[in-house]
UniProtKB/TrEMBL annotation:
Catalytic site: 67
Reactions accelerated catalytically: shikimate + NADP(+) = 3-dehydroshikimate + NADPH + H(+)
EC number: 1.1.1.25
Pfam families: SDH_C, Shikimate_DH, Shikimate_dh_N
Metabolic or biological pathway: Metabolic intermediate biosynthesis; chorismate biosynthesis; chorismate from D-erythrose 4-phosphate and phosphoenolpyruvate: step 4/7
Record-stated family: Belongs to the shikimate dehydrogenase family.
InterPro entries to which the protein is assigned, alphabetical: Aminoacid_DH-like_N_sf, NAD(P)-bd_dom_sf, SDH_C, Shikimate_DH, Shikimate_DH-bd_N, Shikimate_DH_fam, Shikm_DH/Glu-tRNA_Rdtase
Originating organism: Luteimonas terrae
Residue ranges constituting the SDH C-terminal domain according to the UniProt record: 241-270
Record-annotated Quinate/shikimate 5-dehydrogenase/glutamyl-tRNA reductase domain positions: 117-194
SUPFAM superfamilies on file: Aminoacid dehydrogenase-like, N-terminal domain (SSF53223), NAD(P)-binding Rossmann-fold domains (SSF51735)
Record's protein name: Shikimate dehydrogenase (NADP(+))
HAMAP family: Shikimate_DH_AroE (MF_00222)
Domain Shikimate dehydrogenase substrate binding N-terminal: 8-90
Amino acid sequence: MSPARHAVFGHPVVHSLSPRIHGAFGAQTGIAVAYEAIDAGPATFADALAAFAAAGGTGANVTLPLKELAFDLAATRSERAERAGAVNTLVRRGETWHGDNTDGAGLVRDLTDRRGLDLRGRRTLLIGAGGAARGVAPALLDAGIPDLFVVNRTPARTDALADALGEPGRVHPRHFEQLGELGEFELIINATSAGRGGTFPALPRSLVGMRTVAVDLSYGEASVPFLAWARAHDVRDVIDGLGMLVEQAAESFELWHGVRPETAAVFEALQARNASLVTA
Ligand code: NDP
């Protein structure tokens, strides 16, 4: 039997680790996997996805900058995708796509199961309001974050995210200029793509306390600017997005194949590879 055809869409996507991760999951579970990376931007995504379906594609991951567009293209959506307003996983159902979002479950699983963090009671600052931020915010609230402060370069997107989450007592949209007034956070999450350009918005030292954990959803070189800022400000626990990447992929794999793969060995192999590539 020929393998189910899956792909990751995004731009740029050439360096995506998803084909490698899904290949490893397939080898581990004995499921034949054909998983490719397809470069598509907002102008070409709808046509590329239609061509993929016509060629037998039955599952797709969607990455930057297409998650909100994928939400619009999905005919049906899971509850967590609805709450996120963003889709990172598409499952072919008959003639249409079903949209889901595994980013939040992936982040929470990495932080709790792999790193042993108890998220309950952790006052949290989320930087960014794009597709990734939208994916992780509902899962963080479900995991027991008492207060979620959100800042973004474009304030209208901060407000839109806060409105979509619909918990005004727990979700607090703010501006970058207000960060100096907010006190310490136990969890600071960078969900921007700024690091891809080698930069990061300036943050005040007053955000950091004894218990602060800094998490960048990016990995590799893109996580260097924020994690370097955190280390320079005495944050002891810094975590990049590699663990989340593997966990959200496992969640997608289960949606497509009905089997949950083990993630530890895949994560460790990628981490070792990453450490040799990143010169931070
Ligand atoms: P989007 O394009 O949807 O959003 C990008 C976000 O970054 C927006 O909030 C944008 O702000 C902000 N941003 C971009 N450049 C700058 C800058 N120079 N200064 C300040 N803010 C900036 O991307 P995603 O949300 O999909 O992805 C964000 C990052 O998260 C990426 O690096 C991606 O690789 C990573 N990610 C990792 C995952 C994992 O599994 N580890 C999963 C998903 C994403 P504005 O609204 O103003 O444009």
